[in-house]
Amino acid sequence: MSRPAPRTGRNRRPFKPIGRYALRVGAVAAALGLWQLLTVLDVDLWLRFSQFPTVTDVADAFADRLSGADYWRDLTDSLTRIVTGFLLAAVLGVAVGVLVARSRPAEDLLGPLLEMVRPIPAIALVPVAILLFPSNEQGIVFITFTAAFFPVLVSTRHSVRALIPVWEEAVLTMGGGRWHILGSVVLPGALPGIFGGLSVGIGVSWICVISAEMISGQYGVGYRTWQDYTIVYYPGVFVGMVTIGALGWLTSTAVELVGRRLTRWLPRTSYIPAARPTTPRTPAHARRAPAAVRTAQPSDTEEARDEHLV
Amino acid sequence: MSTSSETKPELRTVDRAPSSPRGTRLTLHATTLGRPHAPVLADVDLDIARGEILTVVGPSGCGKSTLLRSLAGLLPPLAGEIDQDGHRLAGPSAERALIFQEDALLPWRTLRANVELPLAIRRVPRSRRRVEAEEWLTRVGLADHASQLPHRVSGGQRQRAQLARALAGHPRAVLMDEPFGALDAQTRAGMQDLLVEVLRGTGATVVFVTHDVDEALFLGDRVALLGAGRLLAVRDVPHPRERTAHDDAARVALRRDVLTSLGT
Question: What positions does the domain ABC transporter occupy (chain B) (predicted)?
């Protein structure tokens, strides 16, 4: 009576995996080709590419940087800042989110404060960071932390509140106390939503760490990029941008992978974007309507949340 | 799902259970039940004997689930008193397990891990937990699905796993909230037989809520009728848990009575 292993979305899509990778690589190559063409030909049609560095200029600058020590120092500094700030935000965001969602006194005590601070863009806190912290380094970590903290907090709070009460009632009638409920119902149940917040958080963190480095950094990818801009070394600016893009992609993929691993229990379809509107789900037998509704829910709410926060 | 062959290990486990008086007596004294400021049932006086199966029927929205949640200790009575063996109920406890209509298994735990949960809460050592969980899953015919996640098995299998999970904690009362309500008729009959089979020997008191009169009359020693915000009547059922007694004259008469008083 067990259901057959569910087909992954991949098999139902028109392209085979190898074809899809070719398509992805091709798209990037085409974009680079267009860039090269526009800049080599110094195209000036309202958009002006005459001052724009070519792809090869950027590649040369990149190769130069890679062989120097500063590049790696910048990289590790930026990564250290973001990882520290983000981890702090993840731990505190989840803790405060659960607290606010589960305890009325905590909600009354912290709720208004958090709602007041939340709309302030983290990067606008630079003056506060400068006043508060003895070193620039701590200030940057603080700003990175603040950036990721609120998305994590808000999504944790929402997903804890959205937990179905039946799970908690079941654990209560097994004789479980509040720690059992926290450990076996609240945290695992809220995990899909929490990871929604973490994904948004890591993105916002990058924006803020780079901006903070531009304003007050010493070393760091953002600092270097701004330095190159002030000395009008455009290929260097582009190297910085490419680096930021690659690091951002790397870290958000890491968050995504950890999230998928920890929420493997979720019915598969929630991770296949194409399965939402177009393709009907195939093995619908043995699955009743309520289960299907709940299945679709996490991705929907997460989507709404992301829109709200970015 | 051949469960009859698994009856023997069941008896062994049950005898091993430390607290020998298995069932429990639940008494409601002039209780008003419901959420604060929203009473659903008033003036409920009910004495549920140790080890009996009491079924509760009534139209939907009549307060069947409220009654059950109150007995579980999740909803304190708004007035009156609920006693377990003469002691006032103070909140939910492992002595009174609750089985829900559906989807109460934790979806991130395998069936085995779900059944292990009440054992973990009771601080049963890890290795024992696993053995006991496997035993219960075998008893409800799910030995082959122990490592499946709940959404990978059928609705009937999920309900069997819920039953195993509830009984694994050795409760003295099992409160069931339309546990087979979402199942098709055939699965349902099979589940009723399984329930009777598995309960035999546990001695647990059972309160079984259903909107299906035939189910109520098959399972219950007594049947309680709810309606219009009150407990209408409690009737003894002739020949409970005998499939052949379906056409028994006394049973037919009772069935007619029940249907009449429920106004259908």
Answer: 11-253
